[in-house]
Specification:
Radius of gyration: 20 Å
Distance between the termini: 41 Å
Number of strands: 0
Order of helices and strands: HHHHHHHHHHHHHH
Shape: globular
């Protein structure tokens, strides 16, 4: 009964995520001129998407746990949980958008990839983070609370929808930020203003012993691991940019292929984290026997979702239809690998006293992206 509910709710949320990711892919496919005009811009896209997905996927997981545990019932700015989560998301978004721009430039230089300036990288990353972050904060709280009020599991409903919507907002936000940066003067002054805000905000958070501090500190290492890994995904994409531009349907396919693997991994991580917090499962590797039905359900969903994704993407490029079988098998394989990794990281994180809500989703979002990018590139080269 529980697995059938998981299948229904999971399919509904993954299908919504599929539709929003297709729109993100269409926007990306129509932005090829900007991608070619600003070399290295696509390096930011997977990592920026993941940063948003990490921050707000983890937020949705924390809100799900808070709603189940009763520490939050509705949106109330006076509530410590609400206030702390908003502030911590703002801090993490600014901090890691800044580092993402720097790291993207470093990787482009190391791999000999022609790219835009360091200032441009950082400002595009920061502006894109702010534009999408404001929208996603509101949306994440709304979906988590509404799903709980409708007697739907926030752990199943919120994370995949938020992650998909993160793509929907993140890609246009980056393109808009790129347009603004290429059409403004005094880039150095704006850069200095952002640096001042970041330093002041981090100082305020770190000096206080608060929930914000705990969330930010516990998120630092997973987030650094996350965007470091995912930026390599962007390097692989930039190295194959001509192929993606040539096969226009591949850009439509790209956000959905990456996100649906990540969505299923995040859904599983959020559900498993809640079970660990509530004590319904033990932090033991043998626990996998108790949740194997859930894993099988996610694998069934992966076959259906990647079949639908390949069908929709093929409407925009017949070349995608020719490799539809490989796309479905590739998506299924990526899902198997990522669910197994998610399970082990969740157990290890919980045993080490680190909240899986803050650590697992950021790490797995980057791992799923890297695995998915490599599999997708291999399929397109087939």
């Amino acid at each position: 009964m529980r697995t059938s509910k998981l299948f229904r709710e999971g399919f509904a949320t993954l299908f919504i995520a599929l539709i929003t990711s297709i729109f993100a892919g269409l926007f990306l496919a129509r932005s090829t001129e900007m991608l070619l005009l600003l070399p290295g811009l696509i390096v930011l896209i997977p990592a920026a998407n993941d940063t948003r997905g990490d921050v707000f996927g983890a937020l949705s997981s924390r809100l799900g746990s808070a709603l189940h545990l009763g520490s939050m019932k509705k949106f109330d700015i006076k509530n410590k949980v609400v206030r702390s989560n908003i502030h911590s998301c703002f801090t993490i978004t600014l901090l890691f958008s800044f580092f993402l721009g720097i790291f993207a430039k470093i990787l482009c230089s190391l791999f000999g990839i022609e790219s835009i300036s360091l200032f441009s990288f950082v400002l595009i990353s920061l502006l894109g983070g702010i534009f999408s972050g404001i929208c996603l904060t509101v949306i994440t709280f709304f979906i988590a609370i509404k799903s709980y009020e409708l007697n739907l599991d926030p752990d199943t409903m919120t994370s995949p929808i938020v992650t998909a919507i993160a793509d929907f907002f993140s890609i246009p936000s980056l393109i808009l930020a790129a347009y603004i940066v290429t059409h403004i003067k005094w880039v150095e002054v704006i850069f200095f203003v952002f640096m001042t805000i970041i330093i002041a905000d981090v100082y305020i958070v770190v000096r206080k012993k608060s929930m914000e501090r705990k969330i930010v500190i516990q998120s630092i290492i997973p987030m650094f691991i996350s965007f470091s890994i995912t930026t390599f995904s962007g390097v692989f994409l930039q190295s194959n940019i001509e192929m993606f531009v040539l096969i226009s349907g591949s850009l439509v396919l790209l956000p959905g292929f990456l996100e649906e693997v990540g969505n299923m991994s995040n859904m599983f991580a959020a559900r498993f984290s809640t079970k660990l917090h509530m004590g319904s499962v033990e932090a033991d590797f043998r626990t996998i026997k108790k949740i194997k039905k859930e894993i099988v359900t996610f694998l069934k969903l992966s076959l259906i979702i990647f079949f639908l994704l390949s069908i929709i993407a093929s409407l925009f490029d017949i070349e995608i239809f020719k490799i539809m079988f490989l796309i479905v098998i590739g998506g299924f394989l990526a899902t198997v690998i990522c669910l197994i990794i998610t399970f082990f990281i969740s157990i290890i994180s919980y045993k080490c006293g680190i909240d899986p809500d803050n650590s697992v989703i950021p790490i797995m979002t980057s791992v799923t992206d890297l695995i998915s990018v490599l599999i997708l590139i291999a399929i397109l080269h087939f």
